[in-house]
């Protein structure tokens, strides 16, 4: 049995995580044929079949599943060796991908990540804004921001920050709409909210807190909801930290209704020894907390 090459193990991990030669190729910037040859070369070196092709994609065999943990350990060692060569433990370099719900991704992460990169010129940050839970085991992201801590899997989490939400509407809408002085008046108003069957976390079910009124306008995107409110379509439960980006909106009934939620930073347990990810997580946590306080203070 020949000694496997790191380049082939790197390709193996990409296929294991994406379950596809083409998706792995996009991640690695290789064509699918090259990815397939690398996998075949690794299987030949190890004298084992690592994947079974199915209609759903490339599924790990038992041998492939056993190899994943060993390959990830080598990956961690390679990351740390690269960091040592490029500048030591206090340097953040290379690419880091962060997954986040789109409210956080749109209104907090751009300026926070820009400030971190300004202090670390060798760092590249990708923000993946998706209204769903990220699969860190498949390396969809290096870390993810969530609205609930994980309850399963080899994951670690730390609380980033508390944030607040209130009912909001544009001044134009309020000028033309029926009177609104108490929560019971909401029955006479147009409500904007989430598509109920696409709410991926109960912490996002804001409207249930006010009796679950029927929505006339609904989206799985916080930004779409907020923009509907900005053009005068109705009332929305919005993030206080987003208000400075939507000057058309004002909070309503804030003395009668408010919500507090939290952001958590979730990482794969196997990444705890990758120093640049640890440094980035520390800076991200500190600066997200500062930015939430700053933006909420402007509301």
UniProtKB/TrEMBL annotation:
Keywords: DNA-binding, Transcription, Transcription regulation. The keyword Transcription applies. InterPro entries: LysR-type_TF_proteobact-type, LysR_HTH_N, LysR_subst-bd, WH-like_DNA-bd_sf, WH_DNA-bd_sf. GO terms for molecular function: DNA-binding transcription factor activity; sequence-specific DNA binding. Residues 4-61 form the HTH lysR-type domain. Pfam families: HTH_1, LysR_substrate. Coiled coil: none annotated. GO terms for biological process: DNA-templated transcription. Belongs to the LysR transcriptional regulatory family. This is Transcriptional regulator, LysR family.
């Amino acid at each position: 049995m020949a000694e496997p090459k790191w380049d082939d193990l790197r390709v193996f991990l990409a296929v294991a995580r994406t379950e596809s030669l083409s998706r792995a190729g996009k991640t690695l910037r290789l064509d699918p044929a090259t990815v397939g040859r690398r996998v075949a070369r690794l299987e030949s070196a190890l004298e084992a079949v690592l994947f079974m092709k199915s209609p759903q994609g490339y599924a790990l065999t038992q041998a492939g599943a056993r190899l994943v943990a060993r390959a990830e350990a080598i990956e961690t060692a390679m990351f740390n060796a690269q960091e040592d060569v490029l500048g030591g433990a206090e340097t953040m370099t290379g690419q880091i991908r962060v997954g986040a719900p789109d409210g956080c991704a749109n209104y907090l992460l751009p300026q926070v990540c820009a400030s971190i990169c300004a202090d670390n010129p060798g760092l590249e940050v990708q923000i993946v804004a998706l209204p769903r839970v990220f699969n860190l085991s498949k390396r969809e992201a290096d870390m993810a921001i969530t609205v609930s801590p994980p309850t399963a899997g080899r994951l670690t989490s730390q609380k980033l920050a508390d944030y607040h939400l209130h009912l909001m509407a544009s001044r134009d809408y309020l000028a033309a709409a029926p009177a609104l002085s108490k929560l019971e008046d909401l029955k006479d108003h147009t409500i904007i909210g989430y598509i109920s069957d696409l709410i991926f976390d109960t912490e996002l079910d804001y409207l249930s807190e006010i009796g679950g009124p029927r929505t006339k306008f609904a989206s799985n995107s916080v930004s779409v909801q907020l923009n509907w409110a900005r053009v005068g379509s109705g009332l929305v439960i919005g993030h206080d930290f987003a208000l400075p980006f939507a000057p058309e909106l004002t909070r309503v009934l804030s003395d009668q209704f408010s919500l507090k939620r939290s952001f958590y930073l979730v990482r794969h347990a196997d990444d705890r020894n990758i120093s640049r990810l640890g440094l980035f997580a520390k800076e991200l946590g500190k600066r997200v907390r500062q930015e939430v306080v700053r933006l909420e203070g402007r509301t």
